[in-house]
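Lecture 7 notes: from sequence to structure.

We start with a single chain of 115 residues. Read the sequence below before looking at the structure.
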Amino acid sequence: LSLHDALPIWHTVDEVQKVIDEEIVQLQRADPSDHELQRSINQIEASFYNRMERVGGFGGKADQLNAYYTNTGDPDWFNEDLARYRALSPSDIRAAAGAFLPADGRVEIVVQPEK
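Now the structure, written as C-alpha coordinates:
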Protein backbone atom coordinates (compact mmCIF):
# COMPACT_ATOMS: atom_id res chain seq x y z
CA LEU A 1 0.00 0.00 0.00
CA SER A 2 1.20 3.45 -0.81
CA LEU A 3 0.39 6.50 1.30
CA HIS A 4 -2.05 7.56 -1.41
CA ASP A 5 -3.97 4.27 -1.02
CA ALA A 6 -4.31 4.82 2.73
CA LEU A 7 -5.78 8.33 2.40
CA PRO A 8 -9.56 8.74 2.52
CA ILE A 9 -11.36 9.28 -0.76
CA TRP A 10 -13.33 12.53 -0.80
CA HIS A 11 -16.40 13.03 -2.92
CA THR A 12 -18.36 16.10 -3.83
CA VAL A 13 -21.88 16.64 -2.52
CA ASP A 14 -23.20 16.16 -6.06
CA GLU A 15 -21.44 12.77 -6.34
CA VAL A 16 -22.89 11.60 -3.02
CA GLN A 17 -26.39 12.83 -3.89
CA LYS A 18 -26.21 11.02 -7.23
CA VAL A 19 -25.35 7.71 -5.55
CA ILE A 20 -28.12 8.18 -2.97
CA ASP A 21 -30.66 8.94 -5.73
CA GLU A 22 -29.55 5.85 -7.69
CA GLU A 23 -29.95 3.61 -4.63
CA ILE A 24 -33.42 5.00 -3.87
CA VAL A 25 -34.53 4.43 -7.47
CA GLN A 26 -33.12 0.89 -7.31
CA LEU A 27 -35.08 0.22 -4.10
CA GLN A 28 -38.25 1.55 -5.72
CA ARG A 29 -37.87 -0.62 -8.82
CA ALA A 30 -36.54 -3.91 -7.48
CA ASP A 31 -36.75 -5.89 -4.28
CA PRO A 32 -33.62 -6.00 -2.16
CA SER A 33 -31.96 -9.40 -2.03
CA ASP A 34 -32.89 -11.78 0.77
CA HIS A 35 -29.33 -11.36 2.08
CA GLU A 36 -29.66 -7.55 2.23
CA LEU A 37 -33.00 -7.79 4.01
CA GLN A 38 -31.76 -10.37 6.51
CA ARG A 39 -28.65 -8.30 7.24
CA SER A 40 -30.85 -5.27 8.00
CA ILE A 41 -33.18 -7.28 10.20
CA ASN A 42 -30.18 -8.71 12.08
CA GLN A 43 -28.88 -5.18 12.71
CA ILE A 44 -32.30 -4.04 13.93
CA GLU A 45 -32.63 -7.07 16.20
CA ALA A 46 -29.14 -6.51 17.65
CA SER A 47 -30.08 -2.90 18.35
CA PHE A 48 -33.28 -4.02 20.11
CA TYR A 49 -31.36 -6.34 22.43
CA ASN A 50 -28.64 -3.75 23.02
CA ARG A 51 -31.22 -1.18 24.16
CA MET A 52 -32.81 -3.69 26.51
CA GLU A 53 -29.45 -4.55 28.14
CA ARG A 54 -28.99 -1.01 29.46
CA VAL A 55 -31.14 -0.24 32.48
CA GLY A 56 -31.07 3.54 32.46
CA GLY A 57 -29.74 6.42 30.47
CA PHE A 58 -31.07 7.63 27.18
CA GLY A 59 -32.41 4.77 25.09
CA GLY A 60 -32.13 2.14 27.80
CA LYS A 61 -34.67 -0.38 29.03
CA ALA A 62 -36.61 2.18 31.09
CA ASP A 63 -37.02 4.48 28.08
CA GLN A 64 -38.08 1.60 25.86
CA LEU A 65 -40.64 0.25 28.33
CA ASN A 66 -42.01 3.75 28.80
CA ALA A 67 -42.26 4.27 25.03
CA TYR A 68 -44.12 0.99 24.64
CA TYR A 69 -46.51 1.90 27.44
CA THR A 70 -47.09 5.40 26.05
CA ASN A 71 -47.67 4.24 22.47
CA THR A 72 -49.47 0.92 22.98
CA GLY A 73 -50.64 0.82 26.59
CA ASP A 74 -48.48 -2.29 27.07
CA PRO A 75 -44.96 -1.87 28.49
CA ASP A 76 -44.21 -5.49 27.51
CA TRP A 77 -44.68 -4.90 23.76
CA PHE A 78 -41.07 -5.85 22.90
CA ASN A 79 -41.87 -9.14 21.12
CA GLU A 80 -44.65 -7.58 19.05
CA ASP A 81 -42.39 -4.69 18.07
CA LEU A 82 -39.55 -6.95 17.00
CA ALA A 83 -41.98 -9.24 15.15
CA ARG A 84 -42.95 -6.33 12.88
CA TYR A 85 -39.40 -6.23 11.52
CA ARG A 86 -38.98 -10.00 11.34
CA ALA A 87 -42.15 -10.21 9.21
CA LEU A 88 -40.87 -7.85 6.49
CA SER A 89 -40.46 -9.16 2.98
CA PRO A 90 -38.34 -7.72 0.16
CA SER A 91 -41.49 -6.45 -1.57
CA ASP A 92 -42.44 -4.57 1.62
CA ILE A 93 -39.16 -2.66 1.37
CA ARG A 94 -39.77 -1.81 -2.29
CA ALA A 95 -43.31 -0.64 -1.51
CA ALA A 96 -42.11 1.52 1.40
CA ALA A 97 -39.39 3.09 -0.77
CA GLY A 98 -42.00 3.94 -3.39
CA ALA A 99 -44.42 5.38 -0.85
CA PHE A 100 -42.07 7.25 1.46
CA LEU A 101 -39.05 8.25 -0.65
CA PRO A 102 -40.38 10.33 -3.56
CA ALA A 103 -37.70 12.25 -5.46
CA ASP A 104 -39.60 15.52 -5.16
CA GLY A 105 -40.66 15.15 -1.52
CA ARG A 106 -37.58 15.47 0.62
CA VAL A 107 -35.57 18.05 2.44
CA GLU A 108 -31.83 18.08 1.93
CA ILE A 109 -29.42 19.74 4.32
CA VAL A 110 -25.83 20.02 3.19
CA VAL A 111 -23.23 21.02 5.76
CA GLN A 112 -19.76 21.75 4.46
CA PRO A 113 -16.78 22.91 6.49
CA GLU A 114 -15.31 26.30 5.78
CA LYS A 115 -12.25 26.28 3.58
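The chain has a mean pLDDT of 87. Keep this in mind for problem set 3.
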